[in-house]
Amino acid sequence: MSIYTRTGDQGQTSVIGGRVYKDDERVEAYGTIDELNSFVGLAGSYADQVLFADLKEDLQQIQQELFDCGSDLAYVKAEERRFKVSAEMAERLETWIDRYQAENPALEKFILPGGTMLASTLHVCRTVCRRAERRAVTLSRQSEINAEAVKYLNRLSDFFFAAARTANVRQQTPDVEYVRSKKVFGRKS
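Predicted structure:
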C-alpha cells in the first residue's frame, strides 16, 4: 500500500463530504488537533510506567478522543454528520482534573510552564490545545460544528495544566512562580 496519493499536489485535501484547500479553517482546526495528539504521545513517552500509570492511561484515552474530535470537525455537509464527541467526555475530564488537583499545592500566582520533561511537555500540550480550541471557534463562526468539541478542547487544556503540576509534584520539582504576578488565584470576586 502506498502512503502517497498525489491527490493533494494542487493544494487541496479531502474532508468528510468534499474537498477543500489545505489552508481552509476546517483543516487548520483538525490539523492543530493532530499536532496536539502528537504532543500527547510525546508526553506519554516521558511518563514513568509506575509513577504515572494513571496519567499514561488517561493520555491514551485522550489520544483516542482527539481523533474523534478531529473527525467531528472534518464534516463539511451537515446532513452527513455523525458526531462522536459528547458532553460526557468533558464531564469525565472534570473528574480527572479534580483528581490531579487534589495532589497539587494551592496556587496563588501564575506559574512558568516547565519543571520536569513530562510537566514541560504537558504545558506544551496545554498551549497547543488552546490553539486548537481557537481554530475550532474560528471554524464555528463560519460553519456549524459540534459545540461539544469546543467544550472538550476547553476542558482538555485545563486537564493538561493540572496534570503538568501533578507531574512536577510526583517528581518533587516545584512549580516556579512568575515573579511579577500578583495573587490571582483563590481570591473572592
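Summary: Residues 14-175 form a domain with the Hypothetical Protein Ta1238; Chain: A; fold (CATH 1.20.1200.10).
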